[in-house]
Model the fold of this input.
Amino acid sequence: MLRANNLLVRRGQRTVLANIDIELRPGEVLGVLGPNGAGKSTLLAALCGELAASEGKVSLDERPLADWPGQERARRLAVLPQSSTLNFAFTVNEVVGMGRLPYASGRVRDAEIVEEALKSADALHLAGRSYLALSGGERQRVHLARVLAQLWPGAEGQTLLLDEPTSMLDPLHQHTILQAVRDFAGRGAAVMVILHDLNLAARYCDHLLLLQDGLPHAYGPPAQVLTAEALAAVYGLEVLIHQHPERGHPLIIAR
Done:
């Protein structure tokens, strides 16, 4: 289980994240929400060890994250950043296969996993193509397949961190990708996903963390976090909250 206790991050003299106490539970999806500059990407960077905590600690299975050897940590923790850049003409299969580098499972098994991960990310039809020939949304799905392949098939004790994985996708693929993430958590992995779309967060996340100016404004199930009062306070947005007629989760409508 990945956990942050009393996490605080400073950039120079400025505190950009504080008072963070969260745990990513097996089989659950935690969504992180907040306006631009609220500290969402900073939180992800601190949770994966890219950014050092100024105070508090980040632990993986009760062991400080920094104490995990690189390959061992890579088999337990995968990260999809907000943007991933490759300037070489790798094939799609080669890009997704990079997720298998922490393992010695063999070329045949790795090829099987690459195919399954591409299928999960609705990108199997891109197999064999040059990465550089893909659109932005197609590249995003390929990189999702890469991090899925890194932890495939997903199990308790593994953690997936995703920074805005739907930002370049059309509405159909936004739902396709988040359902794939939901299914991955269903196999036992813990998932954290940064999102801007409140309705997608309400539908696919078990718990939500709503950040404002680097501080937690609300943390809990979607129905407790996505209230008209909270969204007005954090986003300055006047909304109506209804219940989804089929699924029962909050449905947010701007007034």
Remarks:
- The mean pLDDT is 96.
- The chain has nine helices and twelve strands.
